Amino acid sequence: MRLDIVTLFPDFFTSPLSSGLVGKALAKQIAEVHLVNPRDFATDKHRRVDDEPYGGGVGMLMKPEPIFAAVESLPVLPRREVILMTPQGETMNQALLRELATSYDQLAIVCGHYEGVDERVLNLVTREVSLGDFILTCGEIPALALINGVVRLLPGTVGKEESLKVESFEAILLDYPQYTRPAEFRGWKVPDVLLSGNHAEIARWRREQQIERTRDRRPDLFEAWLRESGSQLET
Question: What is the pTM of this model?
């Protein structure tokens, strides 16, 4: 997969994209990342990429020309999505990451800044994505989260791909509690069922824990799971 990041701050991505699983995936060329700075496409002598909003208001907006020029300088693969990171977009979730990882060969990600981008930039993008209902200082932060979430789903990134199928959100439900050695720590003991060696009972316990944890911590996900599964469990 090709990932093109349109950002005023390319250095923001240097360390995160060279670390951990994502760094290894890029080294193995499972995905490739290209950074492009809109400032390189500004045409005035000061290389301005922002200006005051028409009609007045607080803050500055990113100008459309450098963003358009930056995106239009990129190669175009057959299955491409141009994504704007913005609080006004659809909320990032596992289903979205899975769709991006499996349905596209190229993601061009535009990182907003200041008070946002000129509205005409929306004619360039094909999808708007938000990290959540809160405000951040820049679009680079959610862009990094999106890249991390997508790359880890690409074949070859995670050693045991089977583990991806049992993670939180993959089947709507949250993950079950997990333990490792020692069997007792400061008076807290590992549940007996996990020490029993009875794999059927362990699987049953884990499923029950997933349901209970989701019901208690994320009622919204629990309701979605009930609708999808057709379960008649009482809430």
Answer: 0.87
